[in-house]
Recover the amino acids of this structure.
């Protein structure tokens, strides 16, 4: 794990429930020593469909109108182009950093079948998604596979999504991400209602 020297070194780190610590460096949040989290396995296991793997091994995604790139390397996870406020109020909850998944696996592993699942899929966490998006994703998922669901949700967001300031900065990379619009917005959109 990470060792801190007393004094100035400790002041730049912030602790989350004594289980992990993170550091703010420019527009990046670096999270250290997160047990039981495999970013790739977690975001591509069929829970969420708004993530894309980049050529550099990072993952580009949008959640609740906030865009980030995440890369997992050694004992740290780096959230790029993310404010501390967004980390505290969105990403920390989305990836369930406050829960002790190691302990959950330990407790549940008394059952041999669950122990096999915990061992094989170590690192999957329950993503705390916005309920409306999770409901729509579930509905779109009926009789489909993950690539097709991803495409359906992408087209849904392209048709009804909102372009926001911070999303625009990715346009030059050929990545245009729209937010997942609320149920109220979609229900008020006459073209959507007519298309049903």
């Amino acid at each position: 794990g990470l060792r801190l020297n007393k004094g100035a070194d400790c002041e730049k780190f912030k602790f989350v429930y004594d289980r992990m610590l993170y550091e703010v460096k420019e527009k990046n949040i670096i999270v250290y020593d997160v047990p039981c989290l495999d970013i790739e396995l977690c975001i591509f296991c069929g829970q969420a469909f708004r993530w894309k793997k980049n050529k550099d091994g990072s993952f580009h995604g949008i959640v609740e109108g906030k865009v980030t790139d995440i890369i997992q390397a050694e004992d740290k996870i780096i959230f790029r182009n993310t404010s501390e406020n967004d980390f505290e109020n969105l990403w920390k909850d989305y990836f369930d950093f406050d829960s002790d998944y190691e302990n959950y696996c330990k407790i549940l592993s008394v059952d041999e079948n669950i122990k096999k699942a915990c061992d094989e899929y170590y690192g999957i966490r329950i993503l705390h998604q916005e309920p409306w998006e999770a409901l729509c994703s579930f509905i779109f998922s009926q009789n489909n596979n993950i690539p097709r669901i991803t495409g359906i949700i992408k087209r849904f967001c392209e048709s009804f999504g909102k372009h926001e300031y911070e999303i625009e900065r990715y346009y030059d990379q050929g990545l245009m991400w729209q937010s997942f619009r609320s149920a109220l917005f979609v229900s008020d959109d006459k073209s959507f209602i007519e298309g049903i």
